[in-house]
C-alpha cells in the first residue's frame, strides 16, 4: 500500500463521523501523490502526512448568552489550530447552525494550503459556532459575540492565532468580538482581521475575496486566449463573496445573471443590480424575494437552480457541496468554459472530476478564494506597522497575489505532468512549502 493510501485509511478510520473533513483530506492527499511518491521514505519516516492531517490542537467550549426575552441560550464554540509551520494560525469564524467539529476541521485543513499559496507567512486555523445569527437582534448578536470571545481570547493573539470572518461573521460580529478581546486583555492588537476601518481594518478587505476570485479567473482565461468582456456568468450566494464577485465581474465587462441564498435564487437577464442586492442583503438583511420585487425583469425561484442557467463562467460563492454531479453535467452540456470556486469546497469531488474530464477549466477554492485571507494578512501587516494603506495599494497587491497564485499552481501542475489540472497544482504548490517548513522544524 502506498504511503498516501495508508494515511488515508488511518484518517478515515479515525474521523469516520466527519465526512466533510474526509472529503477535503481525500482530495488533497490524492492530488499530492506524485510529490509524496518522490519523497516517500523521508515523508514516511517524518510522518509528514499523519502530522499534517492531525490538528495541532482544537478547542470546544460552551457559549452561554441571554436572548431578548431574558432566556439563557447555549451554543457550542470551536477553534481548530491546524498547522502553524509557516506562520501564526489564520482562518475565519463560521456562525451557522450546520457547524460541528467536522466542518471546522475541513475548513482548517483547507486553510493550511490556501494560506501557503498566498506566499504570505500564515498558518491554518478555523473556528465558529452552531449559533444562527439570522433573525437575532443586534443586542443578541453582541451578547453571543462577547460570550464567544470570552473563551476564545484565552487561545488567540496577534502572533498566535488571528481569526477573521466567514459565513455569518461579518463586520458587525468582528467589531463586537474585537471589543470584548480588548476589554479582557487590555491590549490593542491586530488579533482579528476584517475589522472596521476606524479601528484597524484594511481598505479593500470587504471586497477582497470576490475581487480576488475575478482576478484569478481573468488571468486564467487570458492565458487560455480569452477575455472576460462579454462573458455570461452564473454566481451562487448573495453574501460577502458573491456580492463583490458580481461587482468585479461587471467592472471587467462580464454580465452576471444569477445569485442565490439558502431559500431560493434569482435569474436577472439584464445583469444583477449590485447596489440593489447590497441594499437587500447587507442593509435590510432580507430574502431575495425583496430583490425580485424591486426589479421587474428578474425572476425569483424557490430552492436550488442557479446552475441550470446557460453561462460561460460559473462562480459558486455560497457554501460547501452546492455544485453536484447533476449540476456539473448541466453546466458542461450548456457549454461552460470555466468554474472557479469562491466558496470553500462548493463542488463535490464527483462534480469536480466530471468538469475536469470534460475540458472545463476549474480553479479550486483554496486558490480562487485566497484573496480574502491574503488581504487579511495585509491587514495584519498594516496593524503591526500602525499604518493604513490606500484602497488602490491594497487592491494592487491583491491583484498581484492572485495573478501569482495562478502561475504558481499552473507551474506546479506542469512540473508533475498534470498541465491544466489546477486542483493538483494548488494542492501540490500549497503542500510543498508547508512540508519543507515542517521538515526543517523537526518532529513536533
Ligand atoms: P456570507 O454569510 O456573507 O454569505 C453566504 C451566502 O451563502 C449567503 O447568500 C447564504 O444565504 C448562502 N448560504 C449559506 N449557507 C447555505 C446553504 N447551506 N445553502 C445555500 N446557501 C447557503 O458568507 P461569505 O460570502 O463570507 O462566504 C461564502 C463562502 O465563501 C463560504 O464557503 C466561505 O467559507 C467562503 N469564503 C469566504 C471568505 C470571506 O472573505 N468572506 C474567504 C474565503 C472563503 P443566506 O443569505 O440565506 O444565509
What does this entry show, briefly?
This protein is α/β, with parallel strands linked by helices and 444 residues long. It contains 18 helices and 13 strands.
Helices and strands in order, then pairings?
Blueprint lengths: L2 H12 L4 H13 L1 H6 L1 H6 L2 H5 L4 E10 L5 E12 L5 E7 L5 H17 L5 E7 L8 H15 L8 E4 L6 H15 L19 H19 L8 E4 L4 H12 L3 E2 L1 E3 L3 E4 L6 H10 L4 H7 L4 E4 L10 E3 L9 H9 L4 E3 L8 H9 L3 E3 L1 H4 L1 H16 L5 H25 L6 H19 L4
Parallel strand pairs: 3-4, 3-5, 6-7, 6-11, 11-12, 12-13
Antiparallel strand pairs: 1-2, 2-4, 8-9, 9-10
Helix pairs in contact: 1-2, 2-6, 2-18, 6-18, 7-8, 9-10, 9-16, 9-17, 11-12, 13-14, 16-17, 17-18
The structure holds NADPH dihydro-nicotinamide-adenine-dinucleotide phosphate.
Overview of this protein structure:
- By secondary structure, the chain is α/β, with parallel strands linked by helices.
- It is 49% helix and 15% strand.
- The protein has a five-stranded mixed β-sheet with strand order 1-2-4-3-5. The chain has a five-stranded parallel β-sheet with strand order 7-6-11-12-13, sandwiched between helices. The chain has a three-stranded antiparallel β-sheet with strand order 8-9-10, covered by helices on one side.
- Strand 12, helix 14 (349-357) and strand 13 form a beta-alpha-beta unit.
- The two termini are 26 Å apart.
- The model has no long low-confidence stretch (mean pLDDT 97).
- Bound molecules: NADPH dihydro-nicotinamide-adenine-dinucleotide phosphate.
- NADPH dihydro-nicotinamide-adenine-dinucleotide phosphate binds at residues 165-168, 209, 237-242, 261-262, 317-319, 342-344, 369, 372.
Amino acid at each position: 500500500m502506498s504511503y498516501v493510501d495508508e494515511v488515508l485509511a488511518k484518517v478515515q478510520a479515525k474521523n469516520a463521523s466527519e465526512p466533510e473533513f474526509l472529503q477535503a483530506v481525500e482530495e488533497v492527499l490524492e492530488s499530492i501523490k506524485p510529490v509524496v511518491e518522490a519523497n516517500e521514505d523521508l515523508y514516511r519516516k517524518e510522518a509528514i502526512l499523519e502530522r499534517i492531517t492531525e490538528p495541532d490542537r482544537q478547542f470546544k467550549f460552551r457559549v452561554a448568552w441571554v436572548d431578548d426575552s431574558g432566556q439563557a441560550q447555549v451554543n457550542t464554540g470551536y477553534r481548530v489550530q491546524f498547522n502553524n509551520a509557516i506562520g501564526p494560525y489564520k482562518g475565519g469564524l463560521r456562525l451557522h447552525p450546520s457547524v460541528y467539529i467536522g466542518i471546522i476541521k475541513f475548513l482548517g485543513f483547507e486553510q493550511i494550503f490556501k494560506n501557503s499559496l498566498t506566499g504570505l507567512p500564515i498558518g491554518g486555523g478555523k473556528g465558529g459556532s452552531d449559533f444562527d445569527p439570522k433573525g437575532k437582534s443586534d443586542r443578541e448578536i453582541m451578547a453571543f459575540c462577547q460570550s464567544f470571545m470570552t473563551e476564545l481570547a484565552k487561545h488567540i493573539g496577534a502572533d498566535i492565532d488571528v481569526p477573521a470572518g466567514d459565513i455569518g461573521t461579518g463586520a458587525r460580529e468582528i467589531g463586537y468580538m474585537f471589543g470584548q478581546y480588548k476589554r479582557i486583555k487590555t491590549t490593542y492588537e491586530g488579533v482579528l482581521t476584517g475589522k472596521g476601518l476606524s479601528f484597524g481594518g484594511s481598505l479593500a478587505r470587504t471586497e477582497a475575496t470576490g475581487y480576488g476570485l475575478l482576478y484569478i479567473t481573468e488571468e486564467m482565461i487570458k492565458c487560455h486566449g480569452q477575455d472576460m468582456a462579454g462573458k455570461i456568468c452564473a454566481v451562487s450566494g448573495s453574501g460577502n463573496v458573491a456580492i463583490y464577485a458580481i461587482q468585479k465581474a461587471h467592472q471587467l465587462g462580464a454580465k452576471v445573471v444569477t445569485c442565490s441564498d439558502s431559500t431560493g435564487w434569482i435569474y436577472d437577464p439584464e445583469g444583477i443590480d449590485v447596489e440593489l442586492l447590497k441594499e437587500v442583503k447587507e442593509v435590510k438583511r432580507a430574502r431575495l424575494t425583496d430583490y425580485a420585487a424591486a426589479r421587474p425583469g428578474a425572476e425569483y425561484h424557490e430552492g436550488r437552480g442557479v446552475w441550470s442557467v446557460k453561462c460561460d463562467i460559473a462562480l459558486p460563492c455560497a457554501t460547501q457541496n452546492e455544485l453536484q454531479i447533476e449540476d456539473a453535467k448541466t453546466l458542461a452540456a450548456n457549454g461552460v468554459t470555466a468554474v472557479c470556486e469562491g466558496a470553500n469546497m462548493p463542488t463535490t469531488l464527483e462534480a469536480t472530476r466530471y468538469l475536469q474530464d470534460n475540458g472545463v477549466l476549474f480553479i479550486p477554492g483554496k486558490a480562487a478564494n485566497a484573496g480574502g485571507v491574503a488581504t487579511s494578512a495585509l491587514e495584519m501587516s498594516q496593524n503591526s506597522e500602525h499604518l493604513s494603506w490606500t484602497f488602490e495599494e491594497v487592491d494592487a497587491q491583491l491583484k498581484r497575489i492572485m495573478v501569482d497564485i495562478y502561475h504558481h499552481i499552473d507551474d506546479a501542475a506542469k512540473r508533475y505532468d498534470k498541465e491544466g489540472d489546477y486542483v493538483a497544482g494548488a494542492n501540490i504548490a500549497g503542500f510543498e512549502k508547508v512540508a519543507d517548513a515542517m521538515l526543517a522544524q523537526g518532529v513536533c
